[in-house]
Write a structure and sequence with these properties.
With 296 residues, this protein is mostly beta strands. It has no helices and 20 strands. The chain has a four-stranded antiparallel sheet, with no helix packed on it.
Length: 296
């Protein structure tokens, strides 16, 4: 999700017909309005000097569902220096997951028609589940699962957010982590991440550090043994309209499986509580009341 003015924009993958990425918006996180299909197989394509593949619709390769390549985990950042919205995502062939690439697209507006710039392996490394993070100084980072999901890589992006500047660090090598979510609270950076168990949920974990480059802490369990049947995708920072305090909320994907089961996938939204500056607790709730949360 991306906050712009009074609106929250929910940007996610879409495998219906020739769609790849779509966008909805809301002012209260309860009522959502469809905005646009941001990326499709008909999107404008422009050459990117760091990208080695500009293909969205791959002729003769049949996807399990939808048309063309598989696009997953689309994430959007606004670059205040260029005035552009930049989308990073995971790119794969229609019928297998052997390529392990990231891909980039760009647009003048958050919910407009994005120009596709191509796919590539960052600095030659495999790249699957991914996310982005924008720090307080405007610097931006790309986080992705590498080496067949054995490692997590954090890359710093170039000033225009369109390419990789450098590899900052490799987290938990050999521990098979994916679904990374990076955010900052106070003086600490936090990383949420799940294990690797295909479409089935597992025990997620979190770690913290005072700098993105680390050193990072050990991993600590988050939620129950299946993270309440979900996998991390985002952390929302919302202002409580009654107390004025900043609250943190966990957003997770609840996958149903491959093929047609994919369309039955849902989301989980749960409060994150901090027992100390570094101790994080994910609380289960059957019902939520968003009347207490403002959009400011």
């Amino acid at each position: 999700m991306v906050k712009q003015g009074d609106w929250y924009y929910w940007i996610g993958e879409n495998r219906t017909e020739n769609h790849k990425v779509s966008c909805y918006k809301s002012m209260d996180l309860v009522n959502w309005k469809f905005c646009n299909h941001l990326l499709t197989t008909n999107s404008q394509v422009k050459k990117h000097d760091r990208a080695t593949d500009l293909t969205l619709d791959i002729k003769g390769r049949q996807a399990d569902i939808g048309i063309g390549c598989n696009i997953e985990r689309p994430k959007v950042l606004y670059n205040p220096n260029t005035g552009k919205y930049v989308m990073w995502m995971h790119w794969e062939l229609p019928d297998n997951y052997c390529e392990a690439r990231c891909a980039v697209a760009v647009c003048d507006t958050i919910d407009g028609e994005y120009t596709y710039l191509g796919s590539f392996r960052p600095m030659g490394h495999m790249s699957r589940d991914c996310n982005v993070f924008q720090d307080e100084d405007g610097s931006a980072y790309f986080i992705s699962a590498a080496r067949d999901n054995l490692d997590l890589h954090i890359y710093k992006l170039t000033e225009d957010y369109l390419a990789i500047d450098r590899l900052v660090c490799i987290l938990w090598p050999g521990q098979e982590r994916e679904a990374p979510v990076l955010f900052k609270r106070g003086n600490y950076y936090f990383m949420l991440t799940s294990g690797c168990s295909g479409w089935s949920p597992n025990q997620s974990a979190y770690a913290y550090a005072k700098t993105i480059a680390g050193p990072w802490s050990d991993l600590y369990f988050l939620g129950d043994e299946t993270t309440y049947g979900s996998q991390p995708t985002s952390v929302l920072q919302l202002k409580n309209s009654q107390t004025g305090s900043l609250e943190h909320w966990y957003l997770g994907d609840r996958w149903k499986g491959s093929g047609e089961k994919y369309y039955l996938s849902e989301y989980v939204l749960l409060p994150l509580h901090f027992k100390s500056d570094t101790e994080l607790h994910l609380e289960w709730r059957e019902n939520l009341n968003f009347n207490i949360v403002s959009s400011g």
